[in-house]
Design brief:
- By secondary structure, the chain is of the alpha/beta class.
- Helix content is 45%, strand content 14%.
- The strands form 2 sheets. The chain has an 8-stranded parallel barrel, surrounded by 7 helices.
- The longest helix has 21 residues.
- Bound molecules: 1,3-dihydroxyacetonephosphate.
Length: 339
């Protein structure tokens, strides 16, 4: 294993002022996103949409890497250049989602385990030849009714570590993504406990399976009150509670924590990241790997119309820039109103 090369890729992904665009929606998820703007999820529409995002001029100032889906890493831009090369040419590192989705966990009502380990070594080799330098694997956990169970926590931690070890062996930086879903009525304290338990298991398994933390990135949820909770914690409390959990559970050797947005509004996701960075420096870079929080306004502005491509790109560039500012605690809500 070439730890230096892995570490240098991981550090480039969390370079100052930059973060990751998660554009790795599976077929089912991209269909949901397209349904929300009333367009059909055809291969051509998916290509046009990703082309719009990946060819946005100036995005590379704030975007270090893009996570692709299997279809997209094999697809070309509208000008015929393969998408991984389009990104590479702009100084953006291509990555790939390699898990095959969260499936019901046997004998555990309402819980999931993420699948995709069978044949993963071969798939990683192919993805690397297609240009991927990092990968992602997402596990999900819910809060409430005795969940997450220890069984779910440890089963997913074991799979995440098996994935991460295979990635490092292949020279690919694993983004380890344990997402404690923030749906429901739970308190922020309950979210902190669940997130802490999950991270404890994940770092135990990563260590036991010989994964080198220096060549790894963590992609966690932020610690929030449940989206349906009555008295939801504000920005400062979210920043404080989230940092507290990470200080307790994440080794300083991990170069970066790249948060997912997980259904927060785009402005909340930016404000929360900003508040955490405003109290830095911290042992790890605190950055973003947002899907919805980077794409939602762009998707809406585009609406599937060729004439609105530029509006879509502007909306995406704006969110990239504001999240770039949140990397150093320099974001201010007033910046939302500027062009
Ligand atoms: P969201 O930011 O929309 O949660 O997506 C990030 C992601 O990659 C989920 O796996």
């Amino acid at each position: 294993m070439d730890v230096q090369q892995l570490e240098s890729t991981a550090r480039a992904l969390v370079a100052e002022g930059k973060g990751i665009l998660a554009a790795d929606e599976s077929d089912g998820t991209i269909k949901k996103r397209f349904d929300s703007i009333g367009i059909e999820s055809t291969e051509a529409n998916r290509q046009a949409y990703r082309d719009m995002l990946f060819t946005t001029d100036g995005a590379e100032e704030y975007i270090s890497g893009v996570i692709l889906f299997d279809e997209t890493i094999r697809q070309s831009a509208l000008d015929g250049t393969p998408f991984p090369q389009v990104l590479d040419g702009r100084g953006i590192i291509p990555g790939i989602k390699v898990d095959l989705g969260a499936k019901p966990l046997a004998l555990a009502d309402g819980e999931t385990v993420t699948e995709g380990l069978d044949g993963l070594r071969g798939r990683l080799e192919e993805y690397r030849s297609l240009g991927a330098r990092f990968a992602k694997w997402r596990a999900t956990y819910s809060i409430g009714g005795g969940r997450p169970s220890e069984y779910c926590v440890w089963t997913n931690a074991h799979a995440l570590a098996r994935y991460a070890a295979l990635c490092q062996e292949a020279g690919i930086v694993p983004i380890v993504e344990p997402e404690v879903l923030q749906d429901g009525t739970h308190t922020i304290e309950e979210s902190a406990v669940a997130t802490g338990r999950v991270l404890q298991a994940v770092f135990t398994e990563l260590h036991d399976q010989r994964v080198d933390f220096r060549g790894t990135l963590l992609k966690p949820n932020m610690v929030l009150s449940g989206y349906e909770a009555s008295d939801r914690a504000g920005v400062e409390a979210v920043a404080e509670q989230t940092l507290e959990v990470f200080y307790r559970h994440v080794p300083a050797a991990v170069p970066g924590i790249v948060f997912l947005s997980g259904g927060q509004t785009d402005e909340d996701a930016t404000a929360h990241l900003n508040a955490m960075n405003a109290t830095g420096p911290h042992p790890w870079q605190l950055s973003f790997s947002y899907g919805r929080a980077l794409q939602a306004p762009a998707l809406k502005a585009w609406g599937g119309e060729v004439s609105k491509l530029e509006a879509g790109q502007q909306a995406y560039a704006k969110r990239a820039r504001l999240n770039g500012a949140a990397r150093s605690g320099d974001y201010k809500p007033e910046m939302e109103d500027a062009a």
